[in-house]
Design goal:
It is built from 6 helices and 5 strands, in the order βαβαβαβαβαα. With 145 residues, the protein is of the alpha/beta class. Strands 2-1-3-5-4 form a 5-stranded parallel β-sheet, with helices on both faces. Helix 4 packs parallel to helix 5. It is globular and about 45 Å long. It starts with a strand and ends with a helix.
């Protein structure tokens, strides 16, 4: 599975560590962020590139977005068709958003989530499958409509 990742300057440090972490556990990672830290960059630029990729193949790819609060990138991603982005702060949420909502983009808050917690969240999020329960399918269909 391909993981598309994007981060602004506030999430840049987290993104660099997370990219290596994902590669070390066997994922192909495509980074839509700048190669170097740029204090003047804007999160919509990176979030929209990731979300566009997920929108084109929502079942076979995943996205991870990081900014200071996590809110900005989450808002941008959820503007795209077939993208279900979730701002997650703990492992319990990570499991719920995959199990119940089939979230295909994970938004993280670099200012409020440690790197160690981020790795735990990502691991659980990537390893939790959508339950496929009828009530969850029904709700996702309503979102898409």
């Amino acid at each position: 599975m391909i993981i598309y990742i994007g981060a602004d300057h506030r999430g840049f440090g987290h993104k660099e560590v997370i990219k290596k972490y994902l590669a070390n556990i066997g994922y192909t990672v495509i980074d839509f962020s700048g190669e170097n830290y740029d204090a003047t960059d804007d999160y919509p630029d990176f979030a929209s590139k990731v979300a566009e990729k997920i929108s084109g193949d929502p079942n076979n790819s995943r996205g991870i977005l990081i900014c200071g609060s996590g809110v900005g990138v989450d808002i941008v991603a959820n503007k795209f068709s077939r993208v279900r982005s979730s701002l997650v702060f703990n492992t319990e949420q990570a499991m719920d958003v995959r199990n119940d909502d089939d979230a295909n983009v994970l938004s993280l808050a670099a200012n409020y989530t440690s790197l160690e917690d981020s790795k735990k969240i990502i691991s659980l999020w990537l390893n939790t499958k959508f339950s496929g329960e009828e009530k969850h399918k029904r709700r996702i269909k309503k979102i898409e409509e």
